[in-house]
Design a protein that fits this description.
The structure is a homodimer of 340-residue chains. The first copy, chain A, is an alpha/beta fold. Chain A is built from twelve helices and twelve strands. In chain A, helix 7 (132-143) links the parallel strand 3 (122-125) and strand 4 (148-151).
Chain lengths: 340, 340
């Protein structure tokens, strides 16, 4: 392998100068920098992506902007932790750093200055929702043509890059599974409609019922906020309606776990008294009693794909697509909570 | 509240100049910059910590360096996700960014150039172990007197800042709980001794037995690697030794969950055939069947404390301590897996 000494010799500079150029340290005559980079290239000197980013005046960082939610340990939720694991893998394999920042969802976030101040070369937006302030921040980013990608949330603007899962189809298959087993009275505990992924689940739920000739009954549709506590609270109306329910579809595992806990506290036997199908296939899904039938979402793959596409675009602007639009498929995992 | 206009007026510059100074954008005469900062200060103009960091030529980022472990979704492990949630909270509340990077544990990581290239102002090292390459990277960092902190791992070097949990005491109390319930033949499934926190658990286990007049029996001490799979594999020797075991202490919840799964597959009834005490009190601990008696570790608080101490040091070098050395207490959570 080529070493720093050989690069220094070919460029006619000291080894220290080679290091300074490749690490972007201190001021440097442009001609010297060019000579070093040229020599490194000719000798196939393995440039660390970060070092070479610095040499080109880039940050070497992929930004990830998360919503700040007081008291929630965001990294400990399966959704964010898996997305970040996937993003982290892509970033690591390309030698980038991952710069995490928090936004207040109620205020339009100034993404653009992250690029201007060279803190990031590209950005992934996690946990975005439909509220005006969020849309405003993202639309500004799209207007500037900067490389970014929104995760798992749709926006009207065709200039917004998106990597998402097909939650309509995932939900359709979840409800279809219950219908196939002969259950007809299927409730739905959904998350907030400010997320397009909640609305997509609702569309899939409605379509599955319609295809089976069943009218959607709004009185057995409940709303939580994707937290375990909100699932536990939903046990009160669900228990009240128990005589009208065969089964319930729940928009994530956390709420399903809270719901099952709450129902059990009120004396329910599960799955005998109510069949449950959840969503995510988080680590906890297979260790609950009964284990959860749930829709597996490839969050890790989604995070990795978004990051890889963005970093590829940074390295090769010409041949890569300008707007990313990917939708990944989910997979139903059948366990005992749905009566199997 | 003071606005940008008033700062611009007092400093005798345009509003755009105020923004450029506070966001560190582009070149700027030093006298102009000083005048803007002085005016902002006099008017108590609320400087965003990051903006002012940039104005001072800092990155505004706290670095977090994680070990790269192929195929492991690091953010999805309770240990890392809770530490990161705590670090994230401190970083967010002080207006910093969190720059995540991965290291190959087999190679001495060049922390020092992260500071030199102004990618970070301070660093937290997660998941460090005792191997030479790791020690070398960290000792170099200590030699340079740069602000950093190692999480939950002890090093001989007194210049290394550490925030850890008291795993010796936590383990002592876990084993003591089993002894108090009359169980005498207590096995131990530990993680790798390359982590000081594994060795500390072993010390606590041994001390609890000794205090009860019981000789430590090496033949019922097992080793895993903190993964669920390694716990499931340990079910083979544990099942073989079952006639010699009343209970087992396991170094984290993941391995305990794997072990219980493996034992059940071999026909064991739990907790009837074997009492289990685990470690961490992760989300999964309370949803397993039986729910896990486990040692709660304040990972979130540890992460937050380390980040707050480092960021405080950055903002006020004079009055803050140079070396951080904190040890937080654990708490035993009693549930059904230990026979209650």
């Amino acid at each position: 392998m080529t070493n720093r000494k050989e690069v220094a010799k070919l460029a006619g500079v000291s080894e220290a100068t080679v290091s300074r150029v490749l690490n972007g340290i201190g001021p440097m005559k442009e001609s010297t920098r060019d000579r070093v980079l040229e020599a490194a290239k000719r000798l196939n000197y393995e440039l660390n992506a970060v070092a070479s980013s610095f040499a080109r005046g880039k940050s070497g960082n992929l930004g990830v902007v998360l919503p700040y939610v007081p008291k929630v340990h965001l990294f400990s939720t399966y959704y964010f932790s898996e997305l970040l694991s996937g993003i982290g893998e892509a970033v690591r394999s390309k030698g980038y750093g991952l710069l995490l920042m928090f936004r207040d969802p109620a205020v339009a976030y100034d993404y653009v200055s992250l690029y201007r101040t060279q803190r990031v070369d590209a950005c992934i937006v996690l946990g975005a929702s439909e509220i005006d302030s969020e849309k405003e921040g993202i639309n500004r980013l799209a207007d500037e043509g900067l490389p970014f990608c929104v995760m798992d949330q749709r926006f009207d603007n065709p200039l917004v890059s998106i990597v998402a899962a097909d939650h309509e189809q995932g939900s359709y298959e979840a409800v279809r599974h219950l219908l196939d087993k002969g259950f007809k009275r299927i409730g739905f505990l959904n998350g907030s409609p400010q997320y397009s992924n909640s609305r997509d689940r609702m569309t899939g739920y409605g379509r599955a019922l319609r295809d089976a000739g069943i009218r959607l009954d709004e009185s057995i549709v409940y709303e939580g906020n994707y937290s375990r506590t909100s699932g536990r609270l939903a046990a009160i109306p669900v228990h009240r309606d128990l005589s009208r329910l065969d089964a319930i579809f729940v928009s994530n595992d956390r709420m399903a776990i809270g719901l099952m806990q709450g129902l059990r506290e009120q004396g329910c036997r599960l799955p005998e008294d109510l069949k449950v199908v959840a969503y995510d296939d988080s680590d906890a899904a297979s260790v609950t009693e009964p284990p959860l039938t749930t829709v597996k979402v490839p969050f890790y793959d989604m995070g990795r794909l978004a990051a890889e596409k963005l970093l590829t675009r940074l390295m090769d602007k010409e041949s890569s697509e300008a707007v990313i639009n990917e939708r990944l498929q989910t997979e139903l995992k059948i366990r005992k909570s749905s009566g199997d």
